[in-house]
Amino acid sequence: MQAKFPKFPVNTPAASVIISIYNKFNYLERVLAGFEQQSRTDFEVILADDGSNGETLAAIRQYQQQAPYPLRHVWHEDKGFRKTRIMNKAVVAAEASFLIFVDGDCIPHPRFVEEHLAHAREGVVLCGRRANLSDKLTHWLTPERIRQGALQHMTGRLLWDSVAGQSRDAEKAIYIRNSPLKPLFPQKFKGLLGCNFSLYKKDLLDINGFDERYEAPAAGEDTDPEYRLGWAGKKFVSVKNYAIQYHLYHKLLPRPEQSQRVLAQVLKERKAYSRYGIQQAGRESLS
């Protein structure tokens, strides 16, 4: 975090990139370094922070002083898992009409923002995938290496690591724009991942944003908006092998029953518009 970067020329951003975070700045710094390398520079970044500690807040403030793109930090107090609530707050704060959602442990390919914007359509939800890095490759991919252009040559290293039985889903890191390999990678929608999707803000507001009843990780956060957006008549388009991400290694999170019960109720009611979203859930955090 010592280098100084030229400022990106942003007035009104074409996209608001919303990154969900909770501590782990060592991972977040890699993600932010990835956004420093983007081919499109007309975007802002909003950190949707579910109550990170003082050490993380200090590191974010230090990075903000030199960030080459507009970087805003939306935070609330740590009162347990309230990711969907802070995500709604970030959605309201977003200046762009187009939103791109990313997790704080997923590094974007250099053409990540470009591809989401290139495929953007009203009434359409763009759904990307991610390649899962091994623990070894996660440690190798430092912020400094990312700034030195490591992502430009990541595919070969990732494929080799995959052959060695370490990284997984390496084929999802193959960039196919204008590639003769394009016919080998059909674009079939296989579900929404909360770490890599985008849509117009209006389309998300049509379902009242994220349902804030999900108060445990790894269950419902992705599936719930997928169902409700579908019930609202939105179409889903895959941008696999276009909008690429590299997922940093960590242990799998448990899937608590409490969130499964909320999702079961949502599936029973089959209502696109949630009563527990941006408008109804209590907006003291938005003031």
UniProtKB/TrEMBL annotation:
It comes from the Bacteria. InterPro entries: Galactosyl_T_C, Glyco_trans_2-like, Glycosyltransf_2, Nucleotide-diphossugar_trans. Transmembrane segments: none annotated. Residues 16-147 form the Glycosyltransferase 2-like domain. It holds the Pfam family Glyco_transf_7C. Keywords: Transferase. SUPFAM superfamilies: Nucleotide-diphospho-sugar transferases (SSF53448). Residues 186-251 form the Galactosyltransferase C-terminal domain. GO terms for molecular function: transferase activity. This is Chondroitin polymerase. It comes from Cesiribacter andamanensis AMV16.
